[in-house]
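Anyone able to model this chain together with INI?
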Amino acid sequence: MTEVPALAQIEGRLDARGLKVAIVAGRWNDFIIASLLRGAQAAWSRHGGAAGDLAVARVPGAFELPVAVKRFAASGRYHAVVAFGCVIRGDTPHFDYVAGEAAAGLMRAQLDSGVPCIFGVLTVDTVEQALERAATSRMNKGGEAMDVAIEMADLFRRVGA
Ligand code: INI
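re: yes, here you go
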């Protein structure tokens, strides 16, 4: 059988040294957001990020995330931006608008800016489901979102300008 040559792969690593990341977090369901922030900060320092290189901004709700994230991404100061929000279906009859527009807007922010904008918005049916995803364990979605931010930022750093 013909030998297939190994492909040269380029992949981001979980190395936050020298990176600058911004988190933009909604204030709705703040008890959940606080756990996501703790998970993200723990992941940031676990991967070697400096405390002074992580900025945290707050906005009213998930609907405000895209415009604020886009501003941070377009500033040229950050390698990645992480958006945190929590939209609970039972809390709002306009769940689909808030959650859907947050997702669509964040995708647009990253495509327009070329900076990875990570979707750390919990869209759940109940408070219990939100608590599960924000639990202080390996399941914490805040830590997961920060891992994705670091991997993407490191990938783009390797690709170069
Ligand atoms: N914003 C959230 O982040 N989560 C919610 O669950 C929520 N609910 O339930 O309505 C919510 N609404 C506010 C929205 O994000 C905007 O701040 C508001 O509509 C003003 O633009």
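The radius of gyration is 17 Å.
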